[in-house]
Specification:
Radius of gyration: 53 Å
Number of strands: 13
CATH topology of the largest domain: Rossmann fold
CATH class of the largest domain: Alpha Beta
Number of domains: 5
Shape: elongated
Number of helices: 12
Order of helices and strands: HEEEHEEHEHEHEHEHEHHHHHEEE
Helix content: 40-55%
Length: about 400
């Protein structure tokens, strides 16, 4: 088999695709000590995480860095969250860090990673389990705190984008010891009574402790078993929770969830206007075609002078009828002549014609024609057919020899 030859870019792109599809390398948390920390004029942060066994290059882009709640420094023990992939230009892998926390909450991250690994192995994150969102949801259920700013943001966006949808609020606590049970119960309740076409489950941003209810196993399993499509909308864009991995769709923020849940009425109106315009154009073309066809009909001789047109058609029909009759008569005459000719030929070949000229046909008892004296013997009965009947006779003698000599007898 011929070995495939790849370019450096192809190799890097292939490795990048493998890493981007690896569930372990997306949404992970890495513990380590910061070193070589640099902030560039672009606002991007570059650093290395190290421990006693190795080092990992990291980058945090400006959009994520501005959300940091502390100033990273060399020597700090931190937990960095993000994904690992390849930078194609260098062919080097690195951690694309989206959030960072001091290592004081390391136990929570360890629990997060442990539960994530467990549920992933059980198939709760499987893409084939994801349900599509309804394109035009009639009712949206929102499971969140009734007092949070996230709810008001979602309601405002839903009313603006798609006022036709109804909103059903299922208020729950979103942090604290009772929050996971309430969230899971609300999901199960909405699913059991089919209260909505789509559910949004989430809350606004906060610390990892504030968001921890959405990392609870009972919440994850409630989302997984829900037959209604679920959008997870927890915290801000860098925040990842177990609920995000289980849900049918992850939204970066609650506001983004509202945008993803419904179509934009302005875009729908433009689509409807375009469709209406296209239908009007198609109808106008059909009307114009019908008008042109009607004009052709009205300009035709049949419409301008129907009597003259009818008389012309009648004359044409009479002419065709006359030609048809003449053709039939001619064909019949030719057929008759051909018949008479063939009949005359058949009559000329008839045995009766030969008999009328004085010849006879001799047959033995088995009705076989006697062509030679060797076919009969003395006392055989024979039949002699002449032109006007049959003679029954008995052979008295049968002698061989010609009955005439060539040139001495006339037929």
């Amino acid at each position: 088999m011929e070995q495939q030859i790849l370019s450096v870019s192809q190799i890097n792109a292939y490795i990048q695709s493998l890493m981007d599809q690896d569930g372990l390398l997306t949404g992970l948390a890495v513990r380590g000590e910061i070193s070589n920390y640099k902030v560039y004029p672009s606002g991007h942060h570059y650093f290395t995480l190290k421990d006693e066994g190795g080092a990992l290059k990291c980058v945090m882009f400006r959009g994520s860095a501005v959300k940091l709640k502390f100033r990273p420094e060399n020597g700090m023990q931190v937990i960095a969250m993000g994904r690992i992939t390849v930078y194609p230009r260098d062919g080097a892998y690195q951690l694309y860090c989206t959030a960072m926390a001091l290592d004081g909450v390391g136990d929570l991250y360890a629990a997060f990673e442990q539960l994530k690994k467990k549920l992933s192995a059980q198939g709760l994150f499987a893409p084939e389990h994801k349900k599509p969102l309804p394109p035009y949801p009639g009712t949206i259920g929102i499971i969140t705190s009734s007092a949070g700013a996230a709810l008001h943001d979602m309601l405002r966006i839903l009313r603006k984008r798609y006022p036709l949808t109804r909103v059903r609020l299922l208020p729950v606590r979103v942090q604290g010891a009772e929050a996971p049970r309430e969230i899971a119960a609300a999901i199960a309740y909405a699913d059991h009574y089919k209260l909505a076409d789509l559910l949004i489950v989430g809350r606004g941003g906060g610390s990892i402790e504030d968001l921890w209810a959405f990392n609870d196993e009972q919440v994850a399993r409630a989302i997984y078993h829900c037959s209604i499509p679920v959008i997870s909308a927890v915290g801000h864009e860098p925040d990842f929770t177990i609920s995000d991995f289980v849900a049918d769709l992850r939204a970066a923020t609650p506001s983004n969830a509202a945008e993803l849940a419904v179509p934009d009425q302005d875009a729908l109106r433009q689509t409807l206007d375009s469709a209406t315009s296209a239908m009007a154009s198609a109808l106008w073309r059909q009307i114009q075609a019908a008008r042109n066809h009607l004009k052709l009909l009205s300009d035709s001789p049949a419409m301008k002078s129907p009597e003259a047109y009818l008389e012309q058609r009648q004359k044409a029909l009479a002419y065709l009828q006359a030609r048809l009759v003449a053709a039939q008569e001619k064909g019949l005459s030719v057929a008759k002549q051909r018949f008479y000719t063939q009949a005359a030929k058949l009559e000329a070949m008839s045995p009766l014609k030969v008999l009328l000229r004085g010849y006879a046909m001799v047959q033995d008892d088995s009705q076989q024609v006697v062509r030679s004296v060797s076919q009969v013997k003395e006392n055989d009965r024979i039949s002699i057919s002449v032109s006007d009947g049959t003679i029954q006779a008995v052979v008295t003698a049968a002698q061989e020899g010609t009955t005439y000599e060539s040139g001495k007898h006339d037929l």
